[in-house]
From TrEMBL:
Coiled coil: none
Listed CDD domains: HP_PGM_like
Pfam assignment, any one: His_Phos_1
Protein name: Phosphohistidine phosphatase
PANTHER family named in the record: OS09G0287300 PROTEIN
SUPFAM superfamilies, per the entry: Phosphoglycerate mutase-like
Amino acid sequence: MRLILMRHAKSSWDDFTQPDHSRPLNDRGRRNARALGAWLRSNDYLPDKVLCSTATRTRETLDLLELGASVVYPEDLYHASPETLLRSLQGASGNTVLILGHNPGIGSFASRVVAHRPDHPRFGAYPTGATLVASFDIPRWADLSLNSGTVDAFITPRDLAEQP
């Protein structure tokens, strides 16, 4: 089984009166989301199921990834805790699941779900667009336990911008 944990791309703060849930991506966030989608496709990290927060910025990130997977929008993924993310994943179907969410929950869950953290200077901060790909030797998500995943990849939009 494979898990992709992604924090939404960079959101806009142009309108400070806008409710947090409604904030869209900014221009950089839209560029980064497209680049992350290209990276996922080029590395064959293609989900067959997506669990996505209902927030505007997560939905927009997902649309720009252009992955074509089946999507579910659980209400409790908006600013979800690591415990909520674990429960959601344990109830998921699909061999490769993408969870698209928010910090601090998504970054904390990423740290807790793998046996060994990747050697990347930005992993602890889990910046916008940060994406962890991890594999698990389990037959179904219901059997998932913390500290059991093997890191396949970890990347940030800045890493993609620095690649030739």
